[in-house]
Amino acid sequence: MRDFISSKSLRFFLLPILTSFSFGLSAQQYPDPERYEEDFQQFEQQDRLSPAPEGAIVLTGSSSIARWNDQAKAALAPLTVIPRGFGGSIMHDVLHYLDRVALNYKPRAILIYEGDNDTGLSRYAIDKEMILADLNLIIGKIHRELPETRIYLLSVKPSISREGVWKQAQAVSAGYRQIAAGDPLVYYVDVANPFLNNDGSVMTDIFVEDGLHLNDLGNAIWGSSIKAALMPMEARHEK
Fold first, then answer.
1. Residue 73: CB atoms within 10 Å
2. Could you state, in order of their start, the residue ranges of all structural domains in the chain?
3. Which of 89, 83, 91 is nearest to 173 (CA)?
4. Model confidence at 182: pLDDT above 60
5. By C-alpha distance, which of 2, 31, 35, 6 is closest to 18?
6. How crowded is residue 197: how many other Cβ atoms within 10 Å of its Cβ?
7. What is the 3-state composition of the chain as percent helix, strand, coil, each rounded to the nearest 5?
8. Would you say residue 9 has pLDDT above 50?
9. Which of 37, 105, 121, 193 has a CA positioned 20 to 30 A from the CA of residue 86?
10. Which CATH superfamily is domain 8-237 in?
11. Mean pLDDT of all residues in 16-23
């Protein structure tokens, strides 16, 4: 079985059920996605000043992407990427902003990193089923509107500060892998194992002081892992 990798007919059959489930919970358990409106206005201002190219690779997700926004183009060269991470976000936020964060760019591929805050911040009370329900809605919408666009799902990375929820994060990543295994346009990308020692413990020299966000060494490992996953498919589509 390939390792970065959804049965569309099943997803489309379940889509109305998942939509009802996800949005039925949102008012009570999800934070208000409108808290990111200013971020998206800034992205749109950037696009007015320097329009992003069509047919590129959109990178979106929480702070591990957002803090890497200004490094991603160099780290992933020669691939053409549009960095659109917004820190503190969860999967439901990507669903809410999917048009503005990704679809409007008509990308050939979309890379998503979420699940870290969903599992790591207990005040959100978000469980694996909610995360995967939102992800399935995201994938379904991408397939409908951009039927040839590939989707890369990054596993949740380990960290010192969230060691207590690592099992939950691993369960979410396993859900990503399972979704990817059934869809030729969805690829699972393991960014967890590159951060682990041989005994399975998380490396301690790859984070800034908060024990969560990556330092330069961590970003170098992060970038090389992502590039290695993208290059086999995406290099051939560079113009």
1. 14
2. 8-237
3. 91
4. yes
5. 6
6. 9
7. 55, 10, 35
8. no
9. 193
10. SGNH hydrolase (3.40.50.1110)
11. 43
